[in-house]
Amino acid sequence: MNYRLRNCVWEVTLSCCFSCRYCGSGGGKARENELSTEECLALADELAELGCRRISMIGGEVFCRPDWKLISERVIRNGILLCIISNGYMIDTTLAEELKALGIESLALSIDGPQAIHDRYRQDGSFAKAKRALGVLANAGVDTSVISTLNSENVHTLDELYSFLLDYPIFAWQLQACNPMGNAARQGVDHRFDPHTVIRFVEEHGDAPFALGIADNIGYFTPGEGSLRGTRDGKSCYIGCQAGISAIGIDSIGNIRGCESMYDERFIEGNIRQRSLREIWEDEDAFSYNRRFDTTLLTGKCSGCPEGERCRGGCRSYAYFSGCGLYEAPACARVL
């Protein structure tokens, strides 16, 4: 079967000005032997040759990598839409204007709650810097969205954060579940919450001035499914994990996974220093957990579910790191 690569999450460095309590990749210090500028530029070309349409560039913190702009320019020159995900700490007026001039599709800021909670999970002063970033990005005309990573504590502060965000011209706000991996697992962050709480919040704020939706690790197929994922057309349903189907993840030393949230060595399909990206993507044995999926693999509550063919057991990463294997959504709102 011919799989067409459309989306890529690319971790360009593990270097970061933070070491957040729930960072899935354990960012902070750059890895030894991260991809060179030349390797990154060649990789940007390979992604274009495979037909990739959109890249989400992450870290660590992207702006901690000195050549982030060169890599971004190559991505955009190749006709690929580029979104940069940032904690906002380094974004000032000058950087915001550079982003606008580059022509990135958007900048996604991570904001996880009101000041006290946001700073506790990241670092003192980080909320103020994220707030400043919202302002300078708006002034520069950079399309900006917000991503909030939810856990058992900040899930109860959504209304307060919503009121704060109303003061800024963001175009989207995405709510995602904290994945119990990396720092979140090591520091014992309680990632659990009732998904119905988040779903009700989204449903109650359908008139928000920005697109408000849940990420792929929350859901699935409750009565309002078609309107919960950031669109208002009622047709934006979850289509199952796309890792290795239409999406790929790349880490800062060139390891290839189906998804950058599948942060475990067992999910590495190859490394671009040993094989080309095309060879890895087109390997008939790669990404077998998704490319060879059938509903008999579903376990627990997902086994026998009438939505199993479409949902495919929800988010692979969230299931795996929650201890449910690969084919059972641990907090499916439909089957609770």
Average pLDDT confidence is 94
Radius of gyration over all CA atoms, rounded: 19 Å
Structural class determined from secondary elements: alpha/beta
Q: Tell me the distance between the termini.
A: 35 Å
Strand sequence of the main sheet, in spatial order?
7-6-5-4-3-2-1-8-9-10
Oligomeric state of the chains present here: single chain
What layout of secondary structure does this protein have?
Layout: E1 7-11, H1 37-49, E2 54-58, H2 68-77, E3 81-86, H3 93-102, E4 106-110, H4 115-121, H5 126-140, E5 144-150, H6 158-165, E6 172-177, H7 183-186, H8 195-204, E7 211-214, E8 247-250, E9 255-257, E10 270-271, H9 277-281, H10 288-291, H11 308-311, H12 316-321
Helix pairs in contact: 1-2, 3-5
